[in-house]
TrEMBL record:
Lineage: Eukaryota, Sar, Stramenopiles, Oomycota, Saprolegniomycetes
CDD domains with a match to the protein in the record: STKc_STK36
Species annotation: Thraustotheca clavata
Protein known as: non-specific serine/threonine protein kinase
PROSITE patterns cross-referenced by the UniProt entry: PROTEIN_KINASE_ATP (PS00107), PROTEIN_KINASE_DOM (PS50011)
Pfam family, one: Pkinase
């Protein structure tokens, strides 16, 4: 340990305690994993030493790299790369991920698992995510270094949520247990919880062994087919590697492959602190210079250190502080944001700044109802300041930094407003930005203001959403459905009397509000119709045909007005009512599809039938 400072305990892994550390005489942050020798047989110790030697020689972009290792009389210590987040934290923050993001994670995990034919320890806490969205598997191989005679449920700490049926039944197993675990993780990323979930361990084991997996209707057929191949209870029926790598969900386009390989080439060069592998773990370290821990590139700009130290100090203090509020009470945070964004900052500085701000805004959003006006005002100013520096982030052309900015700004710590639309327009529409727009439209306090802005000063936002249908179809459709069919916040401002004869009994002011609201809705419907005629209409019709065709074979008894079919029909219905060219296009270019599938079937729920009939009318 003479070469490392232990900074803080960051968790307890499957086989030992883990600390965040720093290489002495440098700023290189590492993870220190300690594994006790107590209770292990000589065979276990030999296995562990062999595994450490194997991992030290392993160089794979999706496996946490072993930087150094040594042992004392009582324990082993492995020094590895340090990653700031894991899938468990992402699930806590985002709850569910879009399929295109899940696919990126799946592809990287598959490349890591393809290395080995032995059991790993697959669970969200062991899937680490770097600042460049590089996915890395940790505890890789430690599972096979533990004695095979040890009871699985007692040797692996925590819940068997991610264990395959043969593991919980303590039957013989092979590498396919990792494929089951991967399927469980991907399912949880899509739905927010594993396919089998209960806090009673006996019931959980029974579910894993006997219960069939239930897939949500919102899941694509391609993704469902991939998961069903992994989540086969009979190991012999699980997909093998040739089928997995050939599956459409696991295949990358040429562009995706090039992007991933470019990222891997940046991150492959990692400093190692030991000599060539030997049987006995060495203590001697190579001469070391400061590097970017993600890329391995030498840090040569000394002027960047001061700003990095500021945000590292914030990061460390935030982890130990009892409350986030102390960081917002004075102007130091605003000064640090300005200093970072107005100077020639590095990408690493921006990433660390956004990571700190995300943690503060996230904690603030959890206690939003208890904020006093002074604290809310300070948060609003901080958020507004960050928004003004969007051009600085855009100039980097780094998608991970842009997504972290959006992820930070879309946290509902304060009321959203017009400035959010400006940032949305500037950041180019993607899945994350579309979700942000949806969150704004769902805010009852901001609804009327946002709809007015969309109809007037920010009409280009609607065009951007329509253009994004080819790359983020489902999320874009939900955003358009929100635009044409406003939420409760809009209706509270201008409630529509029922039946219509009650109009004569409402006040003059309410009647005026009702007329203005109706005019605003017609204006929005017209804008959406015009934008779809330019971009996206064909894609929406294709999706409608696909969903309606699938629904014809299934009876749905869940009356949900937010299904993909209901959302598409809302957009078609309101756009056709407001725009004659839109109606003519539907009946002219797509009449066969519309007339065939818009006639409600027993597969449609009540909301879908309602909007289908409205469209036909």
């Amino acid at each position: 340990m003479q070469n490392y400072h232990v900074l803080e305990r960051i968790g307890e892994g499957s086989f030992g305690k883990v600390y965040r550390g720093r290489r002495k005489y440098s700023g290189h942050i590492v993870a220190l994993k300690f594994v006790s020798k107590r209770g292990k047989s000589e065979k276990d110790l030999v296995n562990l030493r062999q595994e450490i030697n194997i991992l030290r020689a392993l160089d794979h972009p999706n496996v946490i790299a072993m930087l150094d290792s040594f042992e004392t009389d009582g324990e082993f210590c492995m020094v590895t790369e340090y990653a700031q987040g894991d899938l468990y934290q992402i699930l806590e923050d985002d709850h569910q991920l879009p399929e295109e993001e899940i696919k990126k994670i799946a592809v990287q995990l598959l490349h890591a698992l393809h290395l080995s034919t032995h059991k790993s320890d697959m669970k969200p806490q062991n899937v680490l995510v770097g600042t460049k969205q590089q996915v890395k598997l940790c505890d890789f191989g430690f599972a096979r270094a533990i004695s095979a005679d040890t009871n699985v449920l007692t040797s692996i700490k925590g819940t068997p949520l991610y264990m395959a049926p043969e593991l919980v039944k303590e039957q013989p197993y092979n590498h396919t247990v990792d494929l089951w675990s991967l399927g469980v993780i991907l399912y949880e990323l899509a739905t927010g919880q594993p396919p089998f979930y209960t806090d009673k361990i006996v019931t959980l084991i029974q579910l894993i062994v006997k219960e069939n997996v239930k897939y949500p209707n919102t899941m694509s057929a391609e993704f469902k087919d991939f998961l069903s191949g992994l989540l086969q209870k009979d190991p012999s029926k699980r997909m093998g590697w040739p089928d997995i790598l050939a599956h459409p969900f696991a295949r990358e386009t040429t562009l995706q492959l090039a992007q991933r390989q470019a990222l891997e080439s940046q991150i492959r060069t990692i400093p190692k602190f030991y000599d060539a592998p030997t049987i006995v773990a060495p203590n001697k370290s190579i001469e070391w210079k400061a590097v970017d821990p993600e890329t391995g590139q030498l840090c040569v700009k000394t002027k960047e250190i001061s700003s990095l130290l500021i945000w590292k100090n914030y990061e460390e203090n935030l982890a130990m502080a009892e409350s986030w509020e102390i960081f917002v009470q004075n102007n130091d945070l605003a000064i640090a944001i300005t200093q970072t964004c107005t100077n020639d900052c590095t990408d690493e500085e921006l990433r660390l700044m956004l990571y700190v701000l995300h943690r503060i805004f996230y904690q603030a959003s959890k206690s939003k109802e208890m904020l006093d006006s002074e604290m809310e005002n300070k948060l609003t100013k901080l958020r507004s300041l960050l928004s003004t520096y969007t051009p600085v982030v855009l100039a980097r052309q780094a998608m991970d930094i842009l997504l972290q900015l959006v992820r930070t700004l879309m946290l509902p710590c304060v009321e959203m407003g017009t400035q959010d639309l400006i940032v949305i327009e500037n950041t180019a529409v993607n899945v994350k930005v579309l979700k942000w727009l949806g969150a704004i439209l769902d805010d009852p306090n901001a609804a009327l203001t946002i709809y007015n802005e969309l109809a007037n000063a920010h009409q280009s936002t609607i065009s951007l959403v329509c253009k994004s249908l080819d790359v983020a179809d489902e999320v874009a459709i939900y955003a358009l459905a929100n635009v044409v069919h406003p939420n409760e916040g809009f209706h509270k401002t201008c409630s529509i009397p029922f039946p219509a004869t009650m109009t004569e009994k409402i006040s003059t002011q309410d009647l005026h509000n009702l007329r203005e609201a109706n005019a605003l809705r017609i204006q929005l419907h017209t804008l959406v119709a015009a934008a779809l005629l330019q971009n996206g209409l064909r894609r929406m019709v294709e999706l409608f045909e696909k969903e309606a065709s699938a629904r014809a074979k299934v009876v749905v008894d869940d009356d949900d007005d937010l299904t993909l079919i209901a959302s598409i029909l809302k957009v078609f219905c309101h756009s056709a009512r407001a725009s004659a060219p839109f109606s003519k296009c539907l009946l002219g270019d797509f009449s066969q599809i519309i007339l065939h599938y818009a006639i409600p079937t027993t597969g449609f729920n009540s909301y879908e039938r309602y909007f289908a009939l409205e469209l036909l009318c």
